[in-house]
Amino acid sequence: MREIKKLRQFMTIHPQLTPQEQHMILHYIEKIETNQIPFEQARIQMINELREASLASTLSISGRKLLSTLQRKEWLFGLLSQMPFSHH
Q1: Separation between Cα atoms, residue 67 and residue 70, nearest integer Å
Q2: For the chain, which end, N or C, has fewer CB atoms within 10 Å of the first or last residue's CB respectively?
């Protein structure tokens, strides 16, 4: 699955993730691989956990990058849903 590969690559590229952030990512990779939850649900749960860490001031710089990456899709769909489309 492409998303799992991207999460693993992110962990390799960003070794400065905290142990908690690494554990969270591996936890969701396992849940996705074992079909316990779909990727989209895991993505939303990861966003929520990373936001909580941010509010608690425990989110690393790499964790912030992951949060931004995961939220990008959410932001784009929110923006598109607000755009008026003409019906000519």
Answers
A1: 5
A2: C
DSSP codes, 24-38:
HHHHHHHHHHTTSS-
DSSP string, 37-48: S-HHHHHHHHHH
List per-residue pLDDT tens for the chain, 88 residues long: 788 999 999 999 999 999 999 999 999 999 999 999 999 999 999 999 999 999 999 999 999 999 999 988 766 655 555 656 545 4
pTM of the predicted protein model: 0.80
In angstroms, how far is CA 37 from the centroid of its own chain?
14
CB 65 within 8 A of CB 14: yes
Contact of 31 with 1, CB cutoff 8 Å: no
d(Cα 13, Cα 7) in Å, to the nearest integer?
A: 10
